[in-house]
């Protein structure tokens, strides 16, 4: 296991990937599982996040904190939105599961929303993480933007 010289025990940013709102239109809402692929990064220490595949390869065994931020426009017919983190190709963590109708506070037929989550994970070097979102209960009319960041904690 690689040792990180971090005497102040600071959180070190390892990547922050962005999917712009123009990059994902009409991607889910009908149960389609959509893979979040950040098409650009603001930081990518060591190049462990791929803007081609959306995969993050864990560089060293440690505890990481992942911050997920999603912004979406959604029709009110969508009754469930689920965000998943896959480890090794298997859905392992679901940090977000909600009904967007309860978040919007609106009876309009179309609403914008944003939501975020922080997930600490103990991971082993070489594990591969990918990130997905699924909207269900309506038609394929969800547009979205996302930022996914991973921080090495220990």
Descriptive report:
Helices cover 3% and strands 54% of the residues. With 154 residues, it is mainly beta. The strands form two sheets. A five-stranded antiparallel β-sheet has the order 3-1-10-5-8. Strands 2, 4, 6, 7 and 9 form a five-stranded antiparallel β-sheet that branches. A hairpin with a 2-residue loop joins strand 6 and strand 7. It is globular. 27% of the residues are buried.
Helix segment count?
1
Kindly report the average pLDDT value: 80
Largest sheet properties = 5 strands, antiparallel
Order of helices and strands: EEEEEEEHEEE
SS-based structural class? mainly beta
- Ranges with pLDDT <50 over ≥5 residues? none
Cα separation of the termini: 12 Å
Strand content: over 45%
Which percent range fits the helix content? under 10%
Principal-axis shape equals globular
Q: What oligomerization state is this entry in? A: single chain
Strand order of the largest sheet: 3-1-10-5-8
Radius of gyration: 16 Å
Write down how many β-strands occur, each being a DSSP E stretch of 2 or more residues.
10
Write a concise synopsis of the structure shown.
This protein has one helix at residues 100-104; strands at residues 12-19, 33-36, 40-44, 56-57, 62-75, 80-87, 90-98, 110-123, 128-136, 143-152. The chain has 154 residues and is mainly beta.
């Amino acid at each position: 296991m690689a040792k990180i010289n971090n005497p102040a025990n600071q959180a070190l940013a390892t990547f922050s990937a962005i999917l712009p709102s123009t990059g994902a239109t009409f991607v889910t809402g009908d149960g389609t599982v959509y893979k979040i692929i950040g098409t650009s990064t603001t930081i990518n220490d060591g190049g462990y996040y791929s803007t081609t595949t959306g995969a993050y390869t864990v560089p060293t065994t440690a505890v990481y904190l992942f911050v997920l931020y999603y912004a979406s426009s959604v029709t009110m017919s969508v009754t469930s939105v689920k965000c998943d983190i896959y480890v090794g190709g298997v859905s392992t963590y679901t940090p977000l599961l909600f009904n967007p109708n309860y978040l919007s506070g609106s009876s309009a037929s179309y609403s914008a929303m944003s939501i975020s989550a922080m997930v600490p994970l103990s991971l082993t070097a070489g594990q591969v993480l990918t990130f997905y979102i699924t909207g269900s209960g309506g038609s394929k009319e969800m547009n979205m933007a996302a930022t996914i960041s991973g921080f090495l904690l220990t």
